[in-house]
Amino acid sequence: MAAHQTILSSPMHVGSAPAAMAATLNFDANSTLRNAGLRSPVPHSESKQLPAMFIEADKNQRSSEDSWEASEHAELEVPVLDLEVLNSGPDKLGQRQELVKAMAKACQKWGFFQVLNHGVDQALIDRCEVEAHRMFALPLEVKERVHRPPGTSFGYGANTWVNQKVLHWAESFHMQLHPTSNIHEMAAKLFAEGDPNQFSSAVEAYMTAVEGLARRLLELLTEGLGLEPRHFSQYLEKERMISMRFNFYPPCPEPSLAIGLRAHTDPHLLTILHQDSVAGLQVQIHDKWVTVKPRPDCFVVNIGDLFQVLSNTMYKSVLHRAFVNSSSQRLSLACFLNPPLNATVATPPELITPEWPQIYRPFTWLEYLKNAYLYHPITGADRHERFFLSANSCANS
Fold first, then answer.
1. CA distance 218 to 228
2. Does the 14-25+60-342 domain belong in CATH 2.60.120.330?
3. Nearest-CA neighbor of 168 among 159, 178, 176?
4. Which helix (H) or strand (E) holds 369?
5. How far apart, in whole angstroms, are the C-alpha atoms of residue 232 and residue 316?
6. What pLDDT shows up at residue 76?
7. How far are the Cα atoms of 65, 68, 69, 160, 296 from residue 289, in angstroms, in the given order?
């Protein structure tokens, strides 16, 4: 679900890797997708063998749908929280407080939860999913019109990180709504022969609705920390960063050897994900990988690294990943809520006590973003450690 790869000198992009690595992965030197880190895995052949560039040799890195299923282990089920109580009158105040407590508890244990009765029109979700499928179904040469070059965040390509030697079995398309939208520009290139507005209007309407949901959730989560609900509202000013990535996972000939998206934490403030009815998202809890049961009527919400910092580790940004299968394609829509690049991220003094000392030093979102993909976590804390207040400040993390 991680997104931003902006303002970097592109060390994480396979396309800017040494020639030896490019040769090992057997990229087509004439393809601009080489620079975006992707030789499209979408099958246009009947091969039942996974190309070598997608085979993960490390079995510990492979994700599998054979991991623990929530239905078999109720104590390992990502909570589903009903937001309907937020539409009730003052007589339901007690139920609202219970919702806030449940949300905070989910973030302390899981870093993930799902929300039902979220207020985003299902017709709008369906419309955006249709446009996402329409985009991925375009010929490769058309999608290359919006390829994501090295060192940039937005466009079509793959999610590749520093020192990555194996490609994900996935395609992605990343867009930004705020502070400046690039959706119309890319739609005009993708659908130059048709009506670009059909795509851009659906995407922008969807992202606007999800941003509204994210703002409501941010206030509830802030309240769950014992703070005034709008305490973090300065992070959502006009220069805020709102983006979305379409993720498409086609059927894989040998899913047990492949990676949909390797384990990672999100560097963001909040991630709001909608997944279709095909399972693929897994969360690590108690050293076990638990599949998040697909609920098309729900959004999956997860805490990003920035919120872990703001909460002084009371809320957890946890490892998650995606697996693929041999029979069904999967689509997810991931929206990312972030502060302005120059915003200072600092734990509020109200959350710092002698019993719970400050873990992280203050930093800007830009500073963290520069490090986020240079030091991508193999374990959940690798990149966090670079922002610890001191070498001994990991007691609560």
1. 11
2. yes
3. 159
4. helix 365-372
5. 17
6. 75
7. 10, 6, 9, 22, 21
Assign residue 151 a region (left: φ > 0; alpha: ψ between -120 and 50; beta: otherwise).
left
Cβ atoms of 173 and 128 closer than 8 Å: no
CA distance 248 to 157: 11
Domains of the chain, by residue range, sit at 14-25+60-342
Sheet holding 298-303, edge to edge: 80-82, 112-116, 298-303, 270-275, 330-338, 241-249, 171-178, 155-157
- Model confidence over 24-39: pLDDT tens digits? 333 333 333 333 344 4
Amino acid in position 266: D
Give the tokens for residue 36: 């975006």
Q: Which helix (H) or strand (E) holds 101?
A: helix 93-109
* Tokens describing residue 352: 């710092």
The C-alpha atoms of residue 117 and residue 129 are separated, in whole angstroms, by 19
Alpha-carbon distance of 306 to 267, in angstroms, equals 6
124 φ, ψ to 5°?
-70, -40
Half-sphere exposure of 240 (CA within 13 A, CB side): 20
The catalytic site residues sit at 330
What are 272-288's pLDDT values in tens digits?
999 999 999 999 998 88
